[in-house]
Amino acid sequence: MASRRLGLIEVISGGILWGASGTVAQAVFSRYQVPTLWLTGVRLSLAGLLLLSWFALSQGKAVWAIWRRPKMIGQLLLFSLLGMVPSQLTYFLAIAYGNAPTATVLQFLGPLFIIIYLAVVRRQWPRRIDLISIVIALFGTFFLVTNGHLTQLALAPLALFWGLLAGVSSATYTLLPRKLLATYDARLVVGWAMLLGSLPFGGVLATTHLPQLNATVVGGIAFIVIGGTMLAYLLYLKSLESLAPSTTGMLSAFEPLTATVLAVAVLGTPMTGAELFGGACIIATTLLQALP
């Protein structure tokens, strides 16, 4: 019972940190004009280095284990470039062109794309509950992006575009590293994937002219890297030791809930009843997937 209680605290805390980091990202983008590509590169490089350093402190030279197996190197590169980089970049771009609540909710469409992908690969119709989830997700997306009106968008077109891509990237991020995580410690896999994923942003990091960084911006970036990336991910993984994946999937709904509450309360982001209803429908698909 004690371990289960600890697991619940871990997964809820991880979701809250993830959601809060989205709101902080919205603030540094909109109020302090921090470039999106620059922050993505910083997040990937620093979080990757922190994870690898943590692993090396306890496991020593095992930090190089992946690089001794050519097949694993290929899988790591695929995960980094097709999973890690798109999931981080599209999420931040969706926030920059829209806001944290809608970006986080649209990212929750990931399970919908996984259902469709598996149906195509297996050449069979989705289960009844999967079809229900698809209908509810599409219904919710309609209300979220149109505010219930057929003739107009409540979101900027680029915010919708990057938000939907964030959902696709979330599905890719989930599917690609399965063999890697079955073989290696998650800190090792995610750390290397983040560090490798930061390399394409090297030019941006070196040449971007930043606005004057004050203590608030530096603190916000530190929170995104440490709290919203490294700690959030590790808390989520730690919770899997005492909770079923279905439980962690349901409780991950704290991420969009936190992003919405903080963005509305702290940043004054407007959210209509139709948008909140649409977001609730999308989040409900995660709960439905956990029921079986």
From TrEMBL:
It is found in: Endomembrane system. GO terms for cellular component: membrane. Residues 6-145, 159-288 form the EamA domain. Keywords: Membrane, Transmembrane, Transmembrane helix. The keyword Transport does not apply. The keyword Transmembrane applies. It holds the Pfam family EamA. SUPFAM superfamilies: Multidrug resistance efflux transporter EmrE. The chain crosses the membrane at residues 35-55, 76-97, 103-120, 132-150, 156-176, 188-207, 213-236, 248-267. Signal peptide: none annotated. It comes from the Bacteria. It is a multi-pass membrane protein. Belongs to the EamA transporter family. This is DMT family permease. It comes from Levilactobacillus acidifarinae DSM 19394 = JCM 15949.
